[in-house]
Amino acid sequence: MTDINPLDDNLPISNTSTIIRIREYVSKFNIFQNESSTNNTQRQEILSTRLFITLVVGFTTILCLYTGLVERTTTITISNSSLLTDTSLQESYFDTLECPCSHLSIPYNEFIIFMNATFHPICTKKNFTSIWFQYFSPYQQTSIWWLQTDDFRHWSILFFNFLQKYCELASSTVFNAMEQFNLELFVSSEVMSPILFETKIHTTIQLFQKSTAILFFSQLQMFHGITEGNGFISTVGINMNFQVDRIALNAPILIKPKTYSDGTCSCGTSINCVELASFYNITHHKVYTIENIYTGCYLLESILHSSLSCFFSNLCRIDLMQATNLGNPNTQELGYVIDIPPLEFSSANSNFKINDTIKPIASQLFIDFWSSEISYERYYNACEPTHCTYLYARRFDVLYALTVFLSVINGLSVGLRSIVPTMVQLVYKLRNRLCS
Fold first, then answer.
1. Is 386 among the domain residues?
2. Computed from CA positions of residues 157, 159, 160, 161, in that sequence, does the dihedral angle turn out positive or negative?
3. Hey, which of 265, 274, 291, 372 would disulfide with 310, CB 3.0 to 4.6 Å?
């Protein structure tokens, strides 16, 4: 025989009654009930309660979603920052990171480790110009009566001497410009990122290099303009011919402009007349023409139009030296027997070509290429930032959401408690009028 527990029969009845009581409580829940409430107003109050709870829950949900999903930006400050710390922060907070510098202006030599200029071989080859100067110097003797004034051997030492002076002027210009540049100040109110710093410094260095080259070449152009404007007569007679009547006594000396390019260009009308430099015999006939070396109205024009490609070629150099004594009416050779090695040209590193004329080379300060090295670490240490700040954005900040909720919900509930009953009353009055 099975035992029957009387509590089991009462369990469904108890649960049902509890549910009924809860439903009845919820259906009659009224937060707007007061002493003046009547049976007629209780329905409005219950409806107002339900509307109030619905609005509070809805506004609370919206508020929670808003405070949870919206990005909240927080300013973080780091004192006594280091290069390692800043580098890691720049990777994550590049757009907002700010590290004010203690020193706003920093000399360039604080972070530029070195900046060097490698000059063209005509300037760096040891004794290049002096050796050729020595080689052609015997032809400057007054006893060499048979040389023509436009013969390259007559003015060759001036050619190499001027070339050497241009190299020296370029070297001193670069040295002085770099000394001045290193002392100039780089203004930085806050620490730059390594990429931005390197880009800005390399741009500044390139601008310095270009401006220095322009300054140097403008000096040559100014000398060119002064020469053209004043119509100077060359001391070596390459722009004027002097003619004397050897029969008549006290005859005047006739000065006529020299012509080049087979008489088509006169130094009297243009100083840009040039033609290939040559060796001449006693009857002024060409016996040898030098490869890519030009002669003209003025020495500067001759040099700028010339190319030193012959001095890079062993065959051309030997050919030139063997032809040096051509046209000499005497059997004795005047030139020295000197072993002059050719210039070496590194096409891999050079910005120029072997057959480039002196003009583009001079416009670049006779510099083959620049090299420089900068240190971001030295820049950072010289800047010496006191602190760094960055903005940190995040969502689902529980503390922030709770603070906003507590600050809003109280005012929201008070406002709704005042507005909701009034709205319900208005709706009821409007419905009664429509139904009556």
1. no
2. positive
3. 291
Same domain, yes or no: 271 and 307: yes
- Asked whether residue 162 is assigned to any structural domain, the reply reads yes
Is the Cα torsion angle 60, 65, 70, 76 positive or negative in sign?
Answer: positive
Alpha helices per DSSP H over 231-282 = none
Q: Which helix (H) or strand (E) holds 22?
A: helix 6-27
Which tokens in the block code for residue 407? 């600050």
Is 420 strand, coil or helix? Answer: helix
Which of 91, 93, 64, 62 shows the shortest CA–CA distance to 77? 93
* 407 and 329, same domain (yes or no): no
Q: 412 is in which domain, residue-wise?
A: 44-70+396-436
Tokens of 258: 């020299």
Specify the 3-state DSSP secondary structure of 232. Answer: coil
> Whole-model pTM above 0.90?
no
Least confident of 335-339, 385-389, 417-421: 335-339
Domain assignment present for residue 12? The answer is no
**Predicted confidence (pLDDT) per residue in 415-435, tens digit:** 888 888 888 778 877 877 777
201 with 339, same domain: the answer is: yes
The b/e string for 407-430 (b: 16+ C-beta within 10 A; e otherwise) is eeeeebeeebeeebbeebeeeeee
Task: Indicate whether 242 and 308 sit together in one domain.
Answer: yes
The total number of structural domains in the chain stands at 2
Whose structure tokens read 């203004």?
A: 187
409 and 365, same domain (yes or no)? no
Alpha helices by DSSP H, listed for 28-76, are 39-69
Mean local confidence (pLDDT), 60-66: 80
Q: Return the exposure string of 156-178: e unless at least 16 CB atoms fall within 10 Å of the residue's CB, then b.
A: bbbbbbbbbebbebbbebbeebb
Residues 276 and 320 reside in one and the same domain: yes
What element of type H or E holds 119? strand 112-119
Q: Which residues pair with 117 in a beta bridge?
A: 370
Indicate if 294 and 339 belong to the same structural domain. yes
- Residue 159 to residue 300: CA distance in whole angstroms: 9
The single-letter code of the amino acid at 409 is I
Give the pLDDT confidence of 216-264 residue by residue, as tens digits.
998 888 877 776 666 667 767 677 776 666 565 666 777 788 888 887 8
How many CB atoms neighbour CB 308 within 10 A?
24
**pLDDT at residue 332 tops 70:** no
Considering the domain boundaries, does residue 230 fall inside one? Answer: yes
The token duo for 149 is 């004034």
Confidence of residue 52 (pLDDT cuts 50, 70, 90): confident
State whether 346 and 408 are in the same domain. no
Distance CA 207, CA 242 (A): 48
- What pLDDT is attached to residue 116? 92
